[in-house]
Amino acid sequence: MAEQVKKPVGIMETVLRDAHQSLIATRMPTDMMLPIVEKMDKVGYHAVECWGGATFDASLRFLKEDPWDRLRKLRDGFKNTKLQMLFRGQNILGYRPYADDVVDNFVEKSIANGIDIIRIFDCLNDLRNLQAAVNATNKVKAREGRGHAQVALSYTLGDAYTMEYWTDMARKIEEMGADSICIKDMAGLLVPYKASEMIAAMKSVTKLPIQLHTHYTSGVASMTYMKAVEAGVDVIDCAISPFAMGTSQPATEVMVETFKGTPYDTGYDQNTLSEIADYFRPYRDECLASGLLNPKVMGVDIKTLLYQVPGGMLSNMVSQLKEQNAEDKYYDVLREIPAVRKDLGEPPLVTPSSQIVGTQAVFNVLMGERYKMATKETKAVLRGEYGQTVKPMNQEIIDKVIPGEKRITCRPADLIENEMDKLEAEMKEWKQQDEDVLSYALFPQVATDFFKYRQAQQEKVDMTQADTRNAAYPV
User: Fold this and answer.
1) How far is CA 403 from CA 330, 381, 386, 396, in A?
2) At 448, is the pLDDT very low, low, confident or very high (cuts 50, 70, 90)?
């Protein structure tokens, strides 16, 4: 290393969001998180990711918890550390595009309840689907001095994704008014020397800080981080060791040790990190014992690099084939996935595009004729309802699946009327806080079930006995 200028790398800790989303289907309850917050707050992390992604749906659906309540409790505990969330652009945390007024409102409430950094991505890398969320964040920032809009590019491979493509996107993200850029490698496809090249190329065209997010699925992630840091990346996403590796991120302690005594030294204290790991280890053992943590997701799956398919998408596909007693068709479907992806304009494979491509590939193989049956999501992609793909879609397939139908070329959300008032009217009997309207907007059925559960809990309660500060109620 010729120059010894200090440039400590920042680490975003993912144990409270992506690590448990990747390993135990987002099932970590808030009560598991709160006792360790004070200790985590002492590390000096760049940020802690603790909200967004699948946490919102899983809290309401499986844990019977209010996600907004979780965020407020975490905010109370983290006095010195920035909190970060993952946000699916115009889809927010749901699975359809929402009107701009819902996006604005959600961003406002996320920051008001404690989020500092909002990482915004789109499954097609269509920047038009990210602009409303960036604008909303900047509006709060101008008014209150809080809020940071990070635009994430879903990393993928394919003819369209050249170095020019990535540098051009970096320039455009800066022009959009974002505060930083994230390279979001959800399938662990970014290999070490490619990472060096990509970071250097992006750094040459933008002044924005660059953060790198990857998963250990294909086994290269730690090496990729090392090369990226040497090439100048500003922040890397890691998970404390009991919830690291496999389909999660590289281990925080390992990366801290790797850069110790170099210009990139994080300065984090290994003893503190070791205490955090000690706290999570028994919970990991419990998850293994109960079957919530499947040892299968802990290893290296090199198929990821061969087929460019994220781990979650593979397991989804296997269960679809199992249901149809067609497990022998596994390799046929794997071969069909890249073909479907090409037909649909070569989108990155990330929620929801990964599920759409995977399911269509299963249908194509099982039916014995390609696109004999197309899912409603495949039709929506072909109509342009998700936005614009990097490459044009296959015209023959468009003619076969949606013959004569009108296709959308504008930003899909331009066609959606404001919907906050309508949503509020639909759910007003359940509303106890403004945030409830947003929970309902994203997951109408699941949120309503949760509101009913919440009401039952409240009505069975003798409020004079309730310990409201700890939200512990005798029922």
Assistant:
1) 30, 14, 19, 10
2) very high
Tokens standing for residue 130: 């990210």
Q: Nearest Cα to 92, choosing from 47, 158, 136, 145? A: 136
Q: 276 with 45: CB under 8 angstroms?
A: no
* DSSP state string for 16-44: TTHHHHHHHTT---HHHHHHHHHHHTTS-
| Joined tokens for residue 405 | 């139908």
Alpha carbon distances (Å) from 180 to 14, 174, 236? 18, 8, 13
Question: Tens digits of per-residue pLDDT, 401-411?
Answer: 999 999 999 99
Q: Is the pTM for the entire model greater than 0.90?
A: yes
- Ramachandran angles phi, psi of 236, nearest 5°: -125, 150
CA torsion through residues 377, 383, 387, 392, sign: positive
Q: Which residues, 6+ apart, have CB-to-CB distance to 391 below 8 Å?
A: 159, 160, 342, 345, 346
Q: Are 53 and 316 contacting, i.e. CB atoms less than 8 angstroms apart?
A: no
Pairing outcome for strands 47-52 and 83-87: parallel
Residues 115-139: b if buried by 16+ CB within 10 A, e if exposed: bbbbbbbbbbbbbbbbbbbbbbbbe
Phi, then psi, of 181 in degrees rounded to 5: -120, 140
Q: What is the pLDDT of residue 309?
A: 77
Does the pLDDT at position 37 exceed 70?
yes
Joined tokens for residue 407: 């296709």
**3-state secondary structure (DSSP) of residue 379:** helix
- The neighbour count for residue 272, using CB atoms within 10 Å, is 14
Over residues 286-338, the pLDDT tens digits come to 999 999 999 888 988 887 887 777 766 777 788 889 899 999 999 999 999 99
How would you write 448-462 as a 3-class SS string? Answer: HHHHHHHHHHHHCCC
CA distance 18 to 58: 13
Closest residue by Cα to residue 137 from 74, 96, 180: 180
Q: Do residues 394 and 342 lie in contact, with contact meaning Cβ atoms separated by under 8 Å?
A: yes
pLDDT at 475: 40
User: How does pLDDT run across 46-103, given as a tens digit for each residue?
Assistant: 999 999 999 999 999 999 999 999 999 999 999 999 999 999 999 999 888 999 999 9
Q: What distance lies between CA 129 and its chain's CA centroid?
A: 15
d(CA 435, CA 20): 24
User: Which of the 8 DSSP states describes residue 298?
Assistant: G
DSSP string over 119-154: EE--TT--GGGTHHHHHHHHHHHHHHS--EEEEEEE
